[in-house]
Amino acid sequence: MNKELLLEYQDASDNLKKFKKLELELRNKIIKSFRYKKTEGVEHRSFEDEGFCVNLVIDLKLRRSIDKDAVETLWSDLSGVEKDCFKHEPSLITAEYKKLVESGDANILMEVVTEKPAQASLKLKFIER
Hints:
Blueprint: H1 3-32, E1 41-49, E2 52-60, H2 68-74, H3 80-83, H4 94-103, H5 109-112
Antiparallel strand pairs: 1-2
């Protein structure tokens, strides 16, 4: 490792933030320049200007969230097909799992949990001297 590597990383990190923001702003401007008949799904558009031709594929998306308390309250009133819209999957509560592992009480649970290295994050804080 050297100073140049750290400075290059910081520059790349700063540029990534800047360009991600710029890309999102430009994407939204382009998408908002068209009218749509639906709010979700793939739309095809084209643009031509003095020999410059582009075909655009716009994937309109909706984010859906669940009011878990309301679902729990209304669960018994839902029909079978309505209940089929939900999946109940085990989800690891990492803090509790770590406590069990540290205390030696994870026993069988350790057989069903796989740990793999994940991408580490990095922040640089330059110190002025």
